[in-house]
Write a structure and sequence with these properties.
198 residues; alpha+beta; four-stranded antiparallel β-sheet
Length: 198
Amino acid sequence: MTATPPTPHPAAASGAFGPAAFQLVLLRRMADFRPDLAEQARLRLGASPAEQRQANKRWQAMVRSPRSRGALARYRSVLGPPESTAHRRIGDLECEALLWPVPLWPDLRFEVLAGPDGAVWNEWLVRAPGARGPVLETARDLLPWSATVDEVARAFAPVRPLEGTAPTRWRLAFTASGEPLVAEFTYGLLQEVRPGTA
C-alpha cells in the first residue's frame, strides 16, 4: 500500500506569495531548532522542500528589495487585511498592534507592532485573544511550540531577556524549581529549553 501524497495547499502551490508561503518561511527558521516539528508542519501545508526553499528565497528578496514599501506594507500585501487592529501603549510610546491568523497554529496570531510612522517595532507569534494558553508551572511544562515569549515570561517571572542569535530569535533566562534555564524562541514561539547559568 502506497502512501497518498499530501494535497498541495493552493497558496503554496500557486505563484502567489500568500499566507501559506509565509508560514513556510516561519517553518524554515524554526527548523533550526525543531526539524521534526517543522517537517510535519510543512507536510500539513502540502508543500515540498523545494517549494519551501523558493518561498524563503522570495521572502528574502522582498525584505532586501530597495523598492520595498516597508515591513508593514509587506505584511499587508502578503497576509491581507489584518484580523484585528488595536492601539497600544508601551511605556510612553503608542503603537498599533495588528493581528493575522496563522492556520498552522489556530490558537496563535502573528502580531506586528507598528509605530505612528508605520515603522515595524516587533513581529512575532502571540496567543489569540480569548484562546487558552498552556498551564506553565514547571520546566516539564515547557514543551516545544507550546508557549509564546510573553506566556513564559509571565509564568516564570522574573526573567532576564538575552540577546537572540538571529533577528527572528528571542531568549529568556529564568529559574524554575531552583534550576537556571534558558528558553529559545523563534518568531516568539518556544523552541527549546536548556540549562542556563546561575
